Amino acid sequence: MILTLICWVALIAFIGLSVKKFMAYGSMPQHGRQDLYPIPLESDEKMHYGGSYMEEDKWYEKERHHNLKGEIVDMLVEMLFIKKLFVNQNGFWWLSYSLHLGMYVAIAWSFLMVFGAFLPGFLGTICVLLGTVCGIAAGVLMTVGCIGLLCKRLFVKEFKNYTTPQEYFNLIILMAVSASGLLVWLGDMQFEFGRNIARAMFTFQPLSNFYADGVPVMLTVFIVLLAFISIYIPVTKLSHYVGKYYTFHKVIWDNEPNMPGSKVEANIIAAQSKPKDPNALKWSAPHWNPAPPTEEQK
After folding, report:
1. Which of 49, 82, 197, 266 has the fewest CB atoms in 10 Å of its CB?
2. Is residue 190 a contact partner of residue 184, using CB atoms and an 8 Å limit?
3. CATH 1.20.950.20 applies to domain 91-252
């Protein structure tokens, strides 16, 4: 029953910590916006050449219309394909996208394992087949991506110079999860272990109930590593899936005007009047270690 509880704790922790981080970002004061054009929430006509609603005569008297379709399309392209990395660092994109695509496919594999465990007949069979393909693809893509990124950070000077120990650890632990999953798959070619985990979780049974000779050691290792990474991701820089949303919507794309009586003005006034906490928002770079102020500076 311990492994089943570990799975539930990891899942609840991942969701809870991710929501907490979303709320933390959402409660931050007004950010210094960049308004980088083209902005996809502009109309299709203006988005085409990077224009702005402010080009129009007396724009401040007109109702603004947000291009929700353009915003969603641009965000999905960035999330699913990491477009900006492809455009700006094409040689680096292939390895990074291998890792990210592997993680996306692994999420799809997780859902297919649940559906395959409980759907009867033809639908269940389809989920098993798709889950097998997704499981193999996820393990290979993530492992290849992690190995490639590790080599790049170890041997390419431009990357090695700014890679921190935590970033090496992040890649190693992700590679350990994907590699251990592939090792379990070698003894279970149809990923029955994934469906057994789903059955154990949603029927609140010990995972050992589904194995006559006890839970395989490598499967136990895989579950523990997967649980660890599920809790670890939301509390580290790997949680950029949260930060990216606010980076786009509240920094790069936010071109809401600061008009008298507007919400933007209210946010700025609130931020200016808020007392500064010397312990909040400290820069965590290793070289940032400011000396305490002298008596004269005080």
Report:
1. 49
2. no
3. yes
Give the per-residue pLDDT at 156. 87
pLDDT for the residue numbered 278: 59
Distance of CA 18 to the CA centre of its chain: 9
Cα 249-254-257 angle, rounded to 5 deg: 155
Task: Report pLDDT for 121.
Answer: 87
CA distance 298 to 296: 5
Hey, where are the domains in the chain? 37-53+64-81, 91-252
- The whole-angstrom separation of Cα 26 and Cα 52 is 26
CB 242 within 8 A of CB 29: no
Q: What string of DSSP letters covers the chain?
A: -HHHHHHHHHHHHHHHHHHHHHHHHHTSPPP-----SS-TTS-HHHHHHT--GGGSTTGGGSPP---HHHHHHHHHHHHHH-HHHHHH-HHHHHHHHHHHHHHHHHHHHHHHHHHHHH--HHHHHHHHHHHHHHHHHHHHHHHHHHHHHHHHHHH-HHHHTT--HHHHHHHHHHHHHHHHHHHHHHT-TT-HHHHHHHHHHHTT--GGGG-TT---HHHHHHHHHHHHHHHHGGGSGGGHHHHHHHHIIIIIS------TTSHHHHHHHHHHHSPP-TTSS----TT--PPPPPTTT-
pLDDT at 275 over 90: no
Computed from CA positions of residues 161, 164, 165, 169, in that sequence, does the dihedral angle turn out positive or negative?
A: negative
